[in-house]
Amino acid sequence: MPITRGEKRSVEVVKVTDEMKSFAAYGKLRLERMNKKHLGARQKKAAEAEKDEKK
């Protein structure tokens, strides 16, 4: 299937403004994204700490 360049994106990309940054929901979304990103590392660290505690 050939790549066509004439199609428009279905998602509009916008710059984050100061107004968006100051809005409390934006901070909450960033916090939740960070929590999701680091969840696996935190679980691994907790499992290792529990393993070391048993020794």
From TrEMBL:
The answer on whether this UniProt entry bears the keyword Ribonucleoprotein reads yes
Keywords, sorted A to Z: Ribonucleoprotein, Ribosomal protein
Question: What GO cellular component entries does it have?
Answer: ribonucleoprotein complex; ribosome
Gene3D superfamilies given in the database record: 1.20.5.110
Classify the source by domain of life: Eukaryota
Q: Which family does it belong to?
A: Belongs to the eukaryotic ribosomal protein eL13 family.
The name on file for this protein is Uncharacterized protein
